[in-house]
Design goal:
By secondary structure, the chain is of the alpha/beta class. It has nine helices and six strands, in the order E-H-H-H-H-H-E-H-E-H-E-H-E-E-H. Strands 3-2-1-4-5-6 form a six-stranded parallel sheet. Helix 8 links the parallel strand 4 and strand 5. It binds 6-O-phosphono-beta-D-glucopyranose (BG6) and magnesium ion. 6-O-phosphono-beta-D-glucopyranose binds next to helix 3. This is Beta-phosphoglucomutase.
Length: 221
Amino acid sequence: MRHHHLVQTKEKKGIIFDLDGVLVFTDQYHYLAWKQLADELGVYFDEKINNRLRGVSRMDSLEIILERYQGEPLNQVQKSELAEKKNEIYRNMLQQMRPANVSAEVRSCLKELRRRGFRLAIGSSSKNAKLILEKVDLLGAFQAISDGTNINQSKPSPEVFLKAAEFLRLEPEECYVVEDAKVGIDAAKAGGMIGIGIGDAATYEKADMKVNSFSEILSVI
Ligand code: BG6
Ligand code: MG
């Protein structure tokens, strides 16, 4: 008998969603808050640099911002203070968030995915994920939440998604990941999941699937 090298593709039972830039456009608030901090530090910052912050933890994001910093070297205490300052600006912006900030398209699509039997989870690097989900009334839409409070390594490490799969009681191979960050697609693939790119990641060559709108997810899975 001939030996075939079959790729085992497991039936998909779960979908893990990144939060910022996928379900809600808090990526704009992140940008504005970092911009404010960068201006105070006299550091150049633009949308292109901002794209490198997608999916990256708060402290790692600060390091990227500081690549162009020309002042006296900063110690860890000063860096923590800067990150805290940005987070305060950001959290003040989050106070404006309302259920209306989640599109009808996103809500109905999540509902349809549940109807099709998928288990849904959040896989976000943010420590503010639960606050955001609460503000926009999405907490009840997910069976599991894996976020910046339960991980040690930021994307592209697959940790946040592996935890999400575990919380859903699924194997990584049984999960799709929906991401707007290139590092998020890298993280999904490193974890053995299928990476669906949206937004900034919709043009990423490493994405297994690419969608131009949220509802397009329904036709690619
Ligand atoms: C990710 C964002 O979701 O969360 C990043 O894409 C952000 O830009 C990261 O830095 C951490 O967010 P927070 O809310 O913990 O500062
Ligand atoms: Mg994102």
